[in-house]
């Protein structure tokens, strides 16, 4: 049966991948609510059928607008956030406004309209692991966020849990690992390095490059979220990951090799303050209880198709590139 979905942040990286996935795999109708900050891009939704996808430009903290949209909605998937750690070290305030106050505004509307709500969060709420820690993050790992970004995401998760328990809001949560794929902003690690190589700039590795991230293709994140929306138990949290641990040095070297450059043609630059060492997700609960499986299990193949996408879509990323590089250059990165 066709649902009316409201997708916040649907013009961002993972939100737009989700909207494409929903149009392809369901009969649902989507309304995107997106403020179009520097990270949002209408072009990420280009080509989608107008009778299936409606776009509303607005702020998730705008309570009257949110109220109006929730009255026309069966389920909400909440992606909108300030999402970049490096920006949160430079200016934390927008992270509080959107990630905390914005999420609060949506929860109050979900409570009033009794709308099914799915909250998108991150593995970063659990802090970081040692390189040799045999345990990975599970739904029972204590919260221990490190950055202004991850602490505001942790705060938003706790608000969702409190609104479920105190007010009976019909919500589920998911915490996913690092996504890669098309439509990711050039401020982020993988697109920054790919577009650097396209532009003839040497990739920039923070510190020694030993930090480990657990990579998942954005389309697999989307299929996991649809699975939780359909089959998830209200009040429950599900960790989403595809067993994709890699250190940053290996990822940069793979990008260079796939792009026909010498594997060592990159620079070490100033490390990120408070840089989390390692993230790793144990997604057993999602796989065994809800039957989800990732489709993109070959990271090298997924990375190669992502490189192709950035080669073919320079018009999508070029307008942001110079400003991002100037921001990093000013910090020695
Ligand atoms: P992004 O920065 O690419 O996109 C965020 C989107 O939200 C943009 O379109 C922006 O315009 C919109 N937005 C920001 N503030 C808003 C506001 N106040 N009102 C309405 N719209 C607003 O982010 P992303 O990487 O796609 O991340 C999406 C979500 O997934 C976030 O909640 C993030 O915490 C979470 N997440 C990201 C990753 C990752 O690897 N990128 C991993 C796990 C979880
Ligand atoms: O784990 C999920 C999180 O993944 C999400 O919650 C965040 O929204 C998302 O941005 C991402 O956070 P990271 O900080 O891990 O991603 P980022 O792409 O910024 O950096 C990935 C790694 O690469 C990290 O160890 C820092 C490093 N890095 C990053 C940049 C931009 C570099 O070495 N060089 C760079 O130029």
Automatic annotation (TrEMBL):
<dbReference type="GO" id="GO:0008460">
    <property type="term" value="F:dTDP-glucose 4,6-dehydratase activity"/>
</dbReference>
<keyword id="KW-0456">Lyase</keyword>
<protein>
    <recommendedName>
        <fullName>dTDP-glucose 4,6-dehydratase</fullName>
        <ecNumber>4.2.1.46</ecNumber>
    </recommendedName>
</protein>
<dbReference type="InterPro" id="IPR005888">
    <property type="entry name" value="dTDP_Gluc_deHydtase"/>
</dbReference>
<dbReference type="InterPro" id="IPR016040">
    <property type="entry name" value="NAD(P)-bd_dom"/>
</dbReference>
<dbReference type="InterPro" id="IPR036291">
    <property type="entry name" value="NAD(P)-bd_dom_sf"/>
</dbReference>
<keyword id="KW-0520">NAD</keyword>
<feature type="domain" description="NAD(P)-binding">
    <location>
        <begin position="6"/>
        <end position="302"/>
    </location>
</feature>
<dbReference type="Pfam" id="PF16363">
    <property type="entry name" value="GDP_Man_Dehyd"/>
</dbReference>
<comment type="similarity">
    <text>Belongs to the NAD(P)-dependent epimerase/dehydratase family. dTDP-glucose dehydratase subfamily.</text>
</comment>
